[in-house]
Write a structure and sequence with these properties.
The protein has 7 helices and 5 strands, in the order E-H-E-H-E-H-E-H-E-H-H-H. By secondary structure, it is an alpha/beta fold. Strands 2-1-3-4-5 form a 5-stranded parallel β-sheet, sandwiched between helices. Helix 3 runs parallel beside helix 4, helix 5 crosses helix 7 and helix 6 packs across helix 7.
Length: 198
């Protein structure tokens, strides 16, 4: 049985019809589905919300501050890979665009046969960034949970006159009995103690 891979959908932003045709040809050659071509980034968030493209491709003379801000707003609310082709640029603009969520930024490199590889790079960078972000979020949660468990252990040690190890065992038993994570039980203990001013 063969698996069918869904063709990636693309929202193209380009105000130059001749340049847009080069990008559109490259997208077609790569097997992507072009959902729509916008002439600018105005109302980009609404269009992305409505169309739900897999990838955004921008080809532009040079991104303005407004365009970069529109991209930033969009990636904050509707994150997805963004490949940007610019005819000209400078280091500050490139840095601002990357900070705004652009996954691949190419200057003076627009060619029909390069579109797929640049989009592939944008997707790979986007995916790697999101894996790292999820790992960081998990690490932060783990750190918060450890602090919560430590505070709950301290409270139990003080209130029950038990050792740190005994307090931890008690939290662990409560967690198993309630089928919860130990961090959740620790938070419950702290919430209970605060509510009853223990």
């Amino acid at each position: 049985m063969t698996s069918v891979t869904k063709a990636l959908s693309v929202l193209l932003i380009d105000d130059n019809p001749a340049r847009a045709e080069i990008v559109e040809s490259g997208l077609r050659d790569a097997g992507y589905v072009l959902l729509e071509r916008l002439e600018g980034t105005y109302d980009l968030l609404a269009r992305v919300s409505a169309l739900k493209p897999d990838v955004i491709v921008v080809s532009i003379d040079s991104p303005s501050r407004d365009a970069i801000e529109d991209l930033r707003r969009t990636t904050e609310k509707q994150p997805r890979p963004i490949a940007l082709f610019a005819d000209r640029s400078d280091p500050a603009t490139i840095a601002a665009a990357m900070e705004a969520g652009v996954s691949a930024y190419v200057v003076k490199g627009l060619a029909q046969d390069r579109v797929q590889s640049v989009v592939d790079v944008a997707i790979a960078h986007f995916n790697r960034f999101h894996v790292m972000r999820e790992e960081l979020d998990r690490a932060r949660l783990s750190l918060v949970e450890r602090k919560t468990v430590d505070r709950a252990k301290g409270l139990l040690m003080e209130q029950k006159g038990i050792s740190e190890e005994a307090a931890y065992r008690l939290l662990r038993k409560l967690a198993m009995d309630q089928n919860k994570r130990i961090g959740e039980v620790a938070q419950d203990v702290l919430t209970y103690a605060k509510a009853f001013k223990i």
